[in-house]
Write a structure and sequence with these properties.
With 989 residues, this protein is mostly beta strands.
């Protein structure tokens, strides 16, 4: 079947000609929507988007009337053509007609847009190299923020400003507009783009419409079939002056995510280095009565390796340069993640248009995204821990081989602690938004618009637990990365499927328990006056107010997670575990690496120990708990802005084909942030307040020397406010596992930039486009999080924070703190092509082909601080902006004759940096490798009512790959989630 799927991918892609997708194409809309009529006037009839009157344009009798996918492309091209600023538009055509799981995957087909994935789905977007925190999202004209959580390698819980698109079903929306240049009337806060998401409106429909779709969703790795349902109803009342619309979408998706990981590479000298052979000088670890370290023992009861030539040679290899010249994996492991996601979305809209001069619109949007995730790993745990945690200095090296890049790619070890770990997370994001906007023509030359809105995103994580069983001091463990660093051979030296080979051991095994929540709310109000001073010259004056509130809360187990209860009489490890089987299908797991292992069973732990009771040793606390305290914080922002903007049409004014807008926006930001700090040993809530203001001028020009050619220029000054997690006056600390300390900085200035955009666009026909654009951003103020690995006693913190743990002050912690730093330039270009391909020399049925393609190239130079002292940089480096892919491309090829439609798409994103400096010791960067995905869609319209659809996502099962070290490319994680196939039927009447 896999071979057939691959053939389908290649055929349905119709040899997708380039790398890119259209700036204007389809996204799955509100189900069953007809090709969208022009939208009624919205709150912001901004100059960047063409505005049109209610009703459809009258077709020329000689025009060819096209429908479906091709029609939506032509509609989107027209919107781009009529705009003054640089925009790209995705128009909805029909029920889930484009093969996308969610909105992020739809938007990635816009030039300059790339996505970050989690659990096989798009989660967030990057626009022209600028990450999610630099992009503002508006839903139905109002700024909103939706957040959820993910695996740690995909970013973890979102407590920032980045928008998580996977919360929403793509079927709920009728159009998406990506605004790449700024106008005074568009909300501030974006360096990358402002993305407008629009739900369907009833007055866009000519008549009463009902539509529904039913699909099955098959994942070839999980081998499960799940439902995907959507429906829409709309009608008009009272002679067409009132319209009502409701839509709903529900889906479930169960997936496996299989992969390998290292949790980072450290220098071999980190955490105290390995245990030196008997008689080796210098002795490591040093002699110490407190740890039982002697000339013949690494620690109490753990013998040093014998002084043989092989043992000495292996130790010399890993100790090269004092342990600073060789890197090795911290937690070499294989693992399976089991995802179960349910997504429910609802929209409602009521419109009243008593005359062509008055329009009132009420929109409501609700989404419930609930998911569980179980992570099962079999791992060697010693290498990430210090001697105080019975870690690396107890481990003996018997064989070692280092590659040319300095990675320990092969090793055989004794006294290795093997761990089987299960992490289980249950979380829900509930999003709701309500907007009321109106438009009134006071006279023929004066129109006013206004809106109020409220949105709330509530992320609740009631369960986040990690359970382990352990086997200390296992012998003859080995890893081998020599043949394939992404699929290493891991040999544990014993049967990992036998529960009796593991123990549940106090002060070794763990029960970690935590909960968390994150709530974001927006309250918006807008008003605009649009006066036509003379024909072709408009003056817009407006004001807006936003109150944004962010509240985060967390609890964690009060007792040390290493304190675990004894097994009840008659209970064995087998009563707490299950055997995971079938791992590694399609992942090339090399023999003799095990594909089954015993793993903690959450349900059995609950049954035996009642771990979620929140009582006794499993009590969870908040403010008094150093592990939870850092995530108990909040930010409130009051943003008040006003703007003036002049729009002109030179053709009307003085017979010169130049359109444009020029204006300035003034904004005042009042910020209040709170968090907990320790005063002595007591946590105290600290509040920090500050205010700042900004003048933000902007200019957009569009020159049309002919009806088919447009030259564009955009220039502006923009800001992006600091990420929420950086603004807390408090901090957080983790003293077990991955030890870390993070503190905030409420005095951060916003990121500032000056931007320039130049573009040329050629429209040879109404459904064809060829364009090129150059963009430049001079980022004058940036925010960097300085990350350093330091002993706890060099952090200036109270040792009391280490109470109730086995961690000592000499153990290494990863320290993080944000600073304002100088920015740097970002520049690039986009090339975009789209056209139908009428083969006039062939039969008529072949005149329905088309292609869309785009390519984006971006470069940047940012000065990163690697180390500092007293806030003064000591060592810096220059690298690309975090999250920036130098190259990105999309292509789509299609055939659509109105009844039969087939299309294939390919999306490419180049590699990018995840963090600078990289995590752990001696890594200059963390990065993610390039990825290419192929999707396909096939549909057949049986009659005017019924349509059959088949869709395929990620048909080549492309893996997500992350690495450490630009010079070494050491594996961090490599996972895949399988192919996704949708099949079903839609009806519309």
């Amino acid at each position: 079947m896999k071979a057939q799927i691959t053939k389908l991918a290649l055929c349905s892609s119709v040899i997708a000609l380039a790398a890119g997708a259209a700036s204007a194409q389809t996204a799955p809309p509100g189900p069953g929507t007809t090709p969208s009529a022009p939208q009624p006037a919205s709150v912001e009839n901004d100059s960047q988007t063409a505005t049109s009157q209610k009703g459809d344009p009258v077709a020329n009798p000689e025009d060819i009337i096209v429908t479906g996918f091709r029609a939506s492309l032509a509609s989107a091209i027209n919107a781009k053509r009529e705009a003054i600023g640089a925009i790209d538009v995705i128009k909805a055509e029909d029920i889930a007609k484009f093969p996308d799981n969610n909105l992020a995957e739809s938007i990635q087909r816009v030039p300059g847009v790339s996505i970050a994935r989690d659990a096989g789905e798009g989660r967030s977007i990057t626009v022209r190299g600028l990450g999610a925190q630099f992009t503002r999202i508006r839903i139905n004209g109002m700024e909103a923020l939706s957040t959820t959580t993910s695996t740690d390698s995909s970013g973890g819980a979102n407590r920032g400003r980045g928008f998580d698109f996977n919360v929403f079903a793509s079927e709920l929306f009728s159009s998406i507009t990506v605004r790449k240049t700024q106008s005074a009337e568009v909300d501030e806060g974006s360096l990358g783009a402002t993305v407008d998401l629009q739900t369907a409106h009833p007055l866009d429909y000519k008549k009463t419409t009902f539509a529904a779709s039913v699909q099955g969703n098959y994942n070839d790795l999980r081998k499960a079939v799940d439902p995907r349902l959507a429906g829409l109803f709309t009608t008009k009342l009272f002679n067409g002056t009132v319209g009502i619309l409701a839509s709903a979408a529900y889906s479930r998706s169960r997936k496996y995510e299989d992969g390998a990981g290292s949790v980072g590479f450290d220098t071999t000298g980190t955490n105290g280095g390995y245990c030196a052979p008997v008689g080796y000088a210098p002795t490591n670890p040093p002699l110490s009565a407190s740890t039982g370290t002697t000339a013949t023992s690494c620690s109490t009861g753990v013998a040093r390796p014998a002084n043989t030539p092989g043992n000495v040679a292996a130790y010399n290899t890993v100790a090269a340069g004092g342990g600073a010249n060789v890197h090795a994996p911290r937690l070499p492991r294989y693992g399976r993640l089991t995802h179960d996601q349910k997504r429910l979305g609802l929209t409602g809209s009521i419109q009243w248009q008593p005359s062509s001069h008055t329009l009132l619109t009420f929109d409501a949007l609700y989404s419930n995204y609930h998911a569980t995730r179980e992570e099962n790993f079999i791992e060697a745990f010693s290498f990430s821990r210090a001697l105080s945690n019975n870690g690396k200095p107890q481990t003996a090296v018997r064989q070692a081989e280092v590659n040319g890049a300095g990675d320990l790619v092969y090793g055989v070890f004794d006294n290795v602690d093997i761990r089987s770990e299960t992490r289980y997370t249950d979380f829900t994001t509930k999003f709701q938004q309500y907007t009321l906007n109106g438009k009134q023509d006071l006279t023929s030359w004066w129109t006013v618009t206004g809106a109020i809105g409220y949105s709330k995103s509530d992320l609740e994580v009631p369960i986040d637990t990690t359970l382990t069983i352990d086997r200390p001091n296992s012998q003859n463990y080995s890893w081998d990365y020599r043949q394939d660093s992404r699929h290493p051979i891991l040999n544990y030296g014993f049967d990992v499927t036998n529960p009796s080979n593991f123990g549940f051991i106090n002060n070794t095994s763990e029960i970690r328990l935590s909960t968390s929540s994150s709530v974001n709310t927006f309250k918006n109000a807008q008003f605009q006056s649009n006066m036509k001073l003379v024909e072709g010259l408009n003056l817009k004056l407006g004001a807006s107010y936003k109150r944004f509130e962010f509240k985060s809360f967390a609890t964690s187990r009060a007792a040390n997670s290493l304190l675990v209860p004894a097994l009840p009489a008659g209970t064995t490890v087998a009563d707490l575990t299950r055997v995971l089987t079938g791992f590694g299908e399609g992942f090339k797991v090399p023999s003799p690496t095990p594909t089954s292992w015993v793993t903690p069973d959450v349900g059995k732990f609950v049954k035996v120990f009642d771990i979620f009771s929140n009582t006794g040793t499993f009590t969870q606390t908040g403010v008094t708990n150093s592990s939870a305290r850092g995530n108990i914080r909040g930010v409130t922002e009051d943003d008040k802005s006003g703007y003036g903007q002049v729009e002109f049409d030179g053709d009307t004014l003085f017979g010169f084909p130049l359109r444009g807008d020029v204006g300035v926006r003034y904004v005042v930001t009042d910020q209040s942030s709170n968090g907990y700090q320790l005063v002595g040993s007591a946590p105290v809530l600290v509040t920090a307040k500050r205010s700042y203001d900004n003048w933000l001028p902007s200019l957009n020009l569009a020159y049309s020397p002919t009806s088919k050619l447009i030259f564009r220029l955009g220039a502006s000054q923009v800001i992006a406010r600091p990420d929420l997690g950086n603004l807390t006056p408090g901090g957080s600390i983790t003293v077990t596992g991955a030890r870390s300390v993070s503190v905030g900085n409420p005095d951060l200035d916003p990121i500032k930039a000056k931007t320039l955009d130049l573009a040329v666009e050629w429209y040879p026909t109404r459904d064809a486009l060829l364009s090129g654009a150059f963009f430049y951003k001079k980022i004058s103020t940036y925010i960097q999080t300085l990350q350093q690995d330091l002993p706890f006693d060099q952090l200036g913190l109270d040792p009391a924070l280490l109470a109730n743990s086995t961690t000592v002050t000499s153990d290494i912690f990863t320290s993080r703190r944000p600073f304002n730093t100088p920015g740097g330039p970002l520049k690039g270009f986009e090339i975009n092509a789209q056209t139908a391909l009428p083969f006039n020399f062939l039969p008529d049925w072949l005149n329905h082909f088309g292609v869309l393609a785009n390519y984006t190239h971006v470069t940047s130079k940012i000065n990163y601080i690697l180390t500092s002292a007293g806030g003064v940089p000591i060592l810096t480096t220059t690298a690309a902006l975090v999250g920036l892919s130098k190259n990105a491309a999309n292509a789509t090829a299609y055939f659509d004759d109105g009844r039969f439609s087939i299309r294939g798409s390919i999306a490419y994103r180049g590699g990018f940096l995840v963090s600078v400096p990289g995590g752990n010791t001696g890594n200059d960067v963390n990065g993610q490798s390039k990825i290419t995905t192929i999707d396909a869609n096939l549909s057949y319209q049986l009659n005017s009512i019924v349509k059959i659809t088949v869709q395929g996502l990620n048909l080549t099962d492309a893996a997500v790959d992350q690495y450490q070290g630009s010079d070494r490319n050491s594996p961090f994680i490599n996972t895949h989630t399988g192919r996704q196939i949708y099949f079903g039927v839609g009806v519309k009447f």
